[in-house]
Amino acid sequence: MELLASGREADVFDIGDNRVLRRSRDDRGVEREAEVMIRLAAQGFPVPAVHHAAGRDLVMERVEGPSMLTALLTEDLDVTTAAEIMTTLHTRLRQADILHLDLHPDNVILSPNGPVLIDWSNCTEGPPGLDPAISALILAQVSVGGTDLADLAHDLLRVFAPRLDITTELPAAVRLRETNPSMSAQELADLGKAADLVRRLSGR
After folding, report:
1. Is 79:126 a contact under the CB 8 Å cutoff?
2. What is the pLDDT along the chain (204 residues), one digit of tens a residue?
3. How far is CA 20 from CA 17, 41, 50, 135, 157, in A?
4. Distance (Å, whole) CA 133 – CA 139
5. Which one, 8, 84, 90, 94, has least CB within 10 Å?
């Protein structure tokens, strides 16, 4: 198997035949995630096709195309279009009554058939405003984090934040990020500053 990517919680391998294996590093089963993806696919929402799910392993369609983050970095995509894509995905998720809770540019693949949302390990049900609030908070944490992506994240957040009501559920988003075990000490320390940035750029 060829290792394609390593995230905070899982590794992704190319296993051939246009399929990838995502293997979680903890003991959390992937069956619930797979069920949500199958249901969303049946409703026409753009997700990778699920082939098999058991234990820590999820076998899915390999979606060709760059991530939205890569396209932004290469300037093949502008922040206005990226914000429009994120807003459309959030609106469609709201109609499907599901929360992704990790919708950011590196989890959107720009396939030849359109944007595809990947990494559904955090999906759940809840208040619809929580999802865009999480997205905005993630962008804000990058924006205040001092990395090479800070300016890009700020520019995207500035365009995305006013498009949806993200401040109502912002306190809940902060609490959820506080309990995320993959957060670094610096990311936790930046949460308050990030939340203030979201409020300011949302204009609410």
Report:
1. no
2. 788 888 777 889 999 999 999 998 877 788 999 999 999 999 999 999 999 999 999 999 999 999 999 999 999 999 999 999 999 999 999 999 999 999 999 999 999 999 999 999 899 999 999 999 999 999 999 999 989 999 999 999 999 999 998 999 999 999 999 998 888 898 999 999 999 999 999 986
3. 9, 17, 10, 25, 31
4. 10
5. 8
Residue type, 188: L
- The angle, 0 to 180 degrees and rounded to 10, between the axes of the packed helices 130-144 and 150-160 is 150
Against a cut of 0.90, is the pTM above it? yes
Q: Residue 141 carries which side chain, given as an amino acid letter?
A: Q
